[in-house]
# Entry
Amino acid sequence: MEREVSALCAAASRSYLTAGRFPYYYAQSKLRFDLVFLTLLRRGLIPDGARVIDLGCGQSLLAAVLLAARRQFEIGVWAKTWPPPPANLLLQGMEREEEVAQWGHLALGNDVRIEIGDVSEAVLPAADVVVLLDVLHYLEANAQLRLLQNVARALARGGQLLMREADASAGLAFHLTRIVDRFGTLSHFGQRMRLPRMTFRTAAEWTALLQTLGFRVGVEPIDGRNPFANVLLHARIGAAA
# Structure
């Protein structure tokens, strides 16, 4: 299976050669060390034909992985123990940083629609799957609630929210996660603007909040061994998680 996973990561990364050296090497590094994208595929969490919106999509790595996964499956380079990757997806993303969004556009072209905008203020189109990976803790509590309300309204009945956040109840692992996030934010924003205030919650608090919005929620650790406190929450609106 290691061969198939390596081939998938390489295929997804190659898409970014047209965007430049930095997007390409960033994709390589991200896919090598961050297993959340592979977790979504291994768990079969995105169905065929889904309208997928990735909020805070960055350079659209999730879309790149989903597209590459389908191509790899069709040529027979796919882990036999994994479910088939989803087909016929309608892929959309939203990213605040115009330059980063442009990398995704250069890499993936018309295979994904990327909008420039602030996810906390977005009016979302109808969707079957909404993805929020490491996004919500950059918003204040009220903005988190508004965004999740918007997501609940956008999702069709039985639609799914997939989100990764740090579990604030995880002790030292959480504190390490918070420090790494703060360092990454400082490196990214530099002196260009005021650093955003981070708002973390425990996994139980995220679950309770989502339940008040009509979601049924499952929580699990991200695949792989790492020192961080991230968890994957998969929540369905009006259906079992």
About this structure: Confidence is low (pLDDT under 50) at residues 186-192. The helical segments are 2-14, 21-33, 36-42, 61-74, 98-108, 141-154, 172-189, 203-212.
